[in-house]
Amino acid sequence: MESHELKIFKHVAELQSVSKAAEKLGYVQPNVSQRIKNLENELGVRLFMRNNRGVTLTEEGKKLLDYTNEILQLIDEAKTAVNPNKWREPLKIGASQTISAVKIPHLLSSFLKEYNNIDVKVRTNNNLTLEKMLFYGEVDGIFVNSSKNITNCDVIYSYFEKIVLITPKLNPFDINSNHTLIVNSDVNCIYRKQLLELSKESNFHSSNIIEFESLESIIQAVHDGLGISIIPADIAANRKSTKEIIFTELPKKIQVDFLIKNKKQQTPGLKKFIRFLQINNNKK
After folding, report:
1. CATH number at residue 62
2. Do residues 227 and 247 share a domain?
3. Any residues with CB less than 8 A from the CB of 210 and at least 6 apart, and which?
4. The CATH number of the domain where 215 resides is what?
């Protein structure tokens, strides 16, 4: 079993497709298939179940993925230990686009002032995809709005953020009026859910809904008078100079958790980030 074969196995597991893994790695598909077959023959078990949509890990495959992540992590640690000038300690963080817009940069700015030999990568996606990324080892930890339904994870750090209703000055918010709701296209977006809840409580739940992929598009839509939305207060604070939008802070707060996979060997970069978050939490 070689590290190169394990990297191929990891790509197939993450992408749930032999062809997609081959394309990403720049290999021909039969080469990737043969490497997976070699691993299965060596271990004497099936690592993947094949289906019409691709492949999924067997229970044995899930076990091997955990070990693969640890082995590849140790290789990275060895490189950093032997030559720290060339190899920086990696730290991969996942977060939704909204969380990563303000809060994450603030945290990382303070963190990197203390630990400047860490190579940080932030991946943005919706909560469901972030959970999968954490499971497959694509990221070391994720910031999510709700961790209640996420299993096999430990909550390392939590904070509460205020939320703000944003409305266009051209069409100010009136509880008795019908409003178009400007929301993120991710149905699990917590800010979308809060806006729909407000709509229902205010008896205009039959309102039209316009979906956008990005936070910038949502804010611009409100700015142009298309409708109303809800965003984090930190983001609203940076936009208070926008004269075409009315900002109204709401009484409810949203909890954000930083999760890591439990029983997972932690990289040195992750250990330092956890220590930083815990110290930061104690200062509150």
Report:
1. 1.10.10.10
2. yes
3. 180, 181, 182, 183, 221, 226, 227
4. 3.40.190.10
Domain residue limits at 115? 85-160+256-282
Among 271, 265, 261, which Cα is nearest to 153's?
A: 261
Residues 276 and 154 reside in one and the same domain = yes
Answer yes or no: do 220 and 174 share one domain: yes
CB 96 within 8 A of CB 231: no
Cα–Cα distance list, 30 to 22, 34, 127, 277 (Å): 9, 6, 34, 45
Provide the residue count of the chain: 284
Query: In whole angstroms, how far apart are CA 25 and each of 9, 34, 209, 283?
Result: 11, 14, 40, 44
* 243 token code pair: 């004269």
Q: How many domains is the chain built from? A: 3
* pLDDT string in tens for the chain (284-residue length): 888 899 999 999 989 999 999 998 889 999 999 999 999 999 999 999 988 888 999 999 999 998 998 898 888 888 888 887 778 888 999 998 888 777 888 899 999 998 888 999 999 888 888 988 888 888 999 998 876 677 788 898 988 889 999 998 876 656 556 788 999 888 888 899 999 988 888 776 556 899 998 889 999 999 988 889 999 998 888 877 778 899 999 998 998 999 998 866 788 889 999 999 988 776 65
Task: Give the position of tokens 């190579």.
Answer: 119
Q: Cα–Cα distance between 244 and 232 in angstroms, integer?
A: 18
Regarding whether 227 and 199 lie in a shared domain, the answer is yes
